[in-house]
Amino acid sequence: VMTWREPYGVCAQIIPWNYPAQIFGRCVAAALAAGNSVVLKPAEEACLSVLRLAELAVENGLPAGVLNVVPGLGLEAGAALAAHPDIEHLSFTGSPETGTLVAQAAAVHHVPLTMELGGKSPQIVFADADLEVALEAIVWGIIQNAGQTCSAGSRLLVQREIAEVFLSRLAERFSALSCDAGEADADCGPLINARQKSQLEACLERARADGVRTLACGRLAKGASKEGHFVVPQLLVDIPEGHEVLREELFGPVLAVQHFEDEAEAMVLANGTDFGLCAGIWTRDGGRQLRLAKGVRSGQVFINNYGAAGGIELPFGGVGRSGHGREKGFEGLKSYTRIKTVAIRHG
């Protein structure tokens, strides 16, 4: 008896605009290494880097037809690709709402899926943590790529006994952040387009109307265009339980704060959304580290760091509304293969 892993055949990949080159690399490389061919649709907002990478692949010996890039609108090219009867595996990275539509289209032909659908990841800070290290990682975890990152640490859960001191220091850090486009000394860049800016600003307006308070915010750098798609980094407090800024992926540099008394309450708050992509745990207590790592509902857990498992060698993906399946690592490579069992009778 033998059990083989074999390629699916034609794999479809639909990738987003926030990290087009990186996501192209990790998806395409695994699919091709497993023996598949690829039809990839980049986001219409960011397709030129993907097209150039595909050109370079062909120029450097990749056979014609093995890698195919199909630019176009999601409602047209993306929908057609997801529903195509000759697709044998589909990988999608994007919003949960679009992911649902993609999954429904692929289900007609029972196509296996890898879905990476975003997150609302908590940073959990206990009183015994190295607060200075935690502070810098928390700031970077929400302003990187202007918060347009599925793994952004967009919720801060801070133990009540240190909340006043820690938030005071964090507010100072937020107040010093600057926004500009293409400047080396800027901390945060613009959002992708006017629509994304408008959606985020509307959410923040609703939050303020509901009593949410901005404890601190960044500023536009001197000379930055006021016509740009900038939303300055914001630190939100006094948030009603269950509010959308605690539940929904905002995809911008906005950090929502909650307080907890003890480990049990921290666990409840950490698991208080439908998402489950990443979590950061800040404590020196080894037992607490492992208890929370096991109990937090997420695909990646970072202890006394955030984002250290971002390399190509480590599997990445989520649970719940964050999706299913894994990209990167050997698990990501295996996801582009299927299993066949062969039994031979001798004699």
Question: What does this molecule look like?
Answer:
- By secondary structure, this protein is of the alpha/beta class.
- It has two domains: 2-117 and 313-342, Aldehyde Dehydrogenase, Chain A, domain 1; 122-303, Aldehyde Dehydrogenase, Chain A, domain 2 (3-Layer(aba) Sandwich).
- Helix content is 35%, strand content 21%.
- It contains eleven helices and 17 strands.
- The chain has helices at residues 20-33, 48-59, 74-82, 96-107, 131-143, 160-175, 194-209, 244-247, 263-270, 286-295, 329-334, and strands at residues 2-7, 10-14, 37-41, 67-69, 89-93, 113-116, 122-125, 155-159, 178-179, 213-217, 219-220, 234-237, 254-260, 278-282, 300-303, 323-324, 337-342.
- The strands form four sheets. Strands 10-12-13-8-7-14-15 form a seven-stranded mixed beta sheet, sandwiched between helices.
- The model has no long low-confidence stretch (mean pLDDT 96).
CATH class (first level) name of the largest domain: Alpha Beta
Estimate percent helicity.
Answer: 25-40%
Q: How many helical elements? A: 11
The profile of the biggest β sheet is: 7 strands, mixed
Mean pLDDT figure: 96
- The strand order across the widest sheet is 10-12-13-8-7-14-15
Protein name: Aldehyde dehydrogenase domain-containing protein
InterPro entries: Ald_DH/histidinol_DH (IPR016161), Ald_DH_C (IPR016163), Ald_DH_CS_GLU (IPR029510), Ald_DH_N (IPR016162), Aldehyde_DH_dom (IPR015590)
Organism: marine sediment metagenome
GO molecular function, one term: oxidoreductase activity, acting on the aldehyde or oxo group of donors, NAD or NADP as acceptor
